[in-house]
Amino acid sequence: MDSDDYEISVSVNGVQYRRRVESRLLLSDFLRHDLALAGTHVGCEHGVCGACTVLLDGHPVRSCLMLAVQAEHHEISTIEGLTTKDGTYHPLQQAMHDHHGLQCGYCTPGILMTMTAFLDENLAPSEDEVREALSGNLCRCTGYQNIVDAVMTAAARMRG
Amino acid sequence: MPVAQDRIFDCPHASAMKPAPFKYIAATSLEHALALKGEHGDDAKFLAGGQSLMPTMNFRLAQPAILIDLNRIEGLGAIRPCDAGGARIGALTRYRTLERDAGFARMFPLIAEALPHIAHPQIRNRGTIGGNLSHADPASELPAIMVALGARFRIQAAKQERWVEASDFFLGALTTDLQPDEMLVEVELPLSKPRTGSCFMEIARRRGDFAIVGVAAMMTLDEQEECTHVRLTFCGVGETPIDASSAADPLVGRAPTEAAICDVAASVQAMIDPGGSVHATADYQRHVAGVLTERALQTAYQRAHHGQ
User: Fold this and answer.
1) Beta-carbon neighbour count of residue A39 at 10 Å?
2) What CATH number is given to the structural domain containing A49?
3) Predicted complex ipTM
């Protein structure tokens, strides 16, 4: 079978990319290998672990369960776009640092994408709501408590 | 918008592909999608949310020759009221849309109660109602709920359409009544009678995992507080959603006392034949089904009684 290739145009973190990709290329692999945006991590590659979570038009999705060709004409946001241009951390990144919310850091990009989108919708969450929102991201190091603390702190700081 | 500079990134795995090769076609309309499916039959798969299909393709358990992407079809994800009351949900409606629709939650509290149990937020942002039902995972919540609600599905092929009752749609594990040229395009949900209470509960190893046992219960009361209608369905305890409503029939025409509900739970335990798994033995599933039956019927009764 000939390679089923497509020319696609995708916006990632506000930057427009044009690439020729095979239809079966996953969005996660496209980001990492074709765009060199390796901050999106790949864990289980079948939608369980949440490490590859990116935002599709602002909503968290598993990038391992989408094809790169499906991202055409959509806006993708990845961990690389979370820090402002002058290097200032997102409040959740700072809070994760302050609370020691990561150890090996493998799950962290997915968690940051999931939880920054969550905070966009709910700036005054309960701890239970935070845990529910976090339920689709596996972390094998922290036991989650410090991540939950970080999200609660980030929410409080963002409320001002 | 800035345009990216080409960067050179030499990755030894750059050629690695998870799914087997396929021909991708983004359908531009429902007619287009159905024509393609009519042409290619079982060689083709519809791609809706992809939350069940893509994992099986990543494992190469599914290797469709043709992948027909439905995501660019306008109007396939709409929720609209139907003439007889109730609502019609387009196949491409995502869980997320239902979850954030307060009016829908008031009309169909049973679905609203079950949605948080369906996987995780990221999956619900992408997964679709039609995709879930067509996939027909026996542990999935929605098939059992559709049977409990008495939903009907509109099934379309290129040249004809038909309606199928939810109770006739699920034939086996991952097997439905859909023919190779057909698509489930719409779900019709009838409105419940006044004084109906519902309840969905499940036990899973972790929140968001597939149910070890899940139960959907609906109960309607009359002015004398007697039960006039009861539905009781399960997920996770058989090859299809299991309709155990007949076990609850003795409640009809009387006040659903604790003792009567307890008897229903015993009947359910005798009726079901769960397969058991590495996570839960069949005996444990049967036990849990009984416990959940009692809790769910009690809750549905209380909600009907208090008009919730």
Assistant:
1) 17
2) 3.10.20.30
3) 0.95
pLDDT reading at B15 higher than 70: no
> Domain total for chain A?
2
Residue B47 predicted with pLDDT over 60:
yes
Chain B, 13-52: which have a CB under 8 Å from a chain A CB? 13-14, 16-24, 26, 50-51
Query: In CATH terms, is domain B196-303 a member of 3.40.50.720?
Result: no
Distances (CA, A) of A22 to A69, B27, B133, B169: 8, 18, 29, 36
User: Cβ–Cβ of B54/A64 closer than 8 Å?
Assistant: yes
Residues A14 and A71 in one domain: yes
Under 8 Å CB pairs connecting chains A and B tally to 119
B121 interfacial to chain A (CB closer than 8 Å): yes
- Residues A96, A74 share a domain: no
Same domain, A133 and A98: yes
SS3 B253: coil
pLDDT digit string, tens, across residues B264-299: 999 999 999 999 999 999 999 999 999 999 999 999
Separation in Å, CA of A25 to nearest CA in chain B: 6
Angle between helices B258-271 and B282-305 (to 10 degrees): 150
For the domain B82-189, what is the CATH code? 3.30.465.10
If asked whether residues A139 and A102 sit together in one domain, one would say yes
Coarse DSSP helix, strand, coil percentages of chain B, rounded to the nearest 5 percent:
35, 25, 40
Q: By CB neighbour count within 10 A (0-12 exposed, 13-18 middle, 19+ buried), where does B190 fall?
A: middle
If asked whether residues A72 and A122 sit together in one domain, one would say no
Question: CA-CA distance, A88 to A83, in Å (whole number)?
Answer: 6
Q: Domain B23-69: which topology?
A: 3.30.43
Minimal CA separation from B50 to chain A, in Å: 6
Residues A72 and A120 in one domain: no
Residues in B touching A14 (Cβ below 8 Å): 1-2
**B170-191 pLDDT, tens per residue?**
999 999 999 999 999 999 999 9
User: What are the boundaries of each domain within chain B?
Assistant: 23-69, 82-189, 196-303
Residue A26 domain boundaries: 5-81
Mean predicted lDDT score pLDDT of chain A: 96
Spell out which chain A residues touch chain B, with contact meaning CB-CB distance below 8 angstroms: 1, 3-4, 6, 11, 14-17, 22-26, 29, 32-36, 45-47, 50, 53, 56, 59-62, 64-67, 69-70, 114, 118, 132-133, 135-137
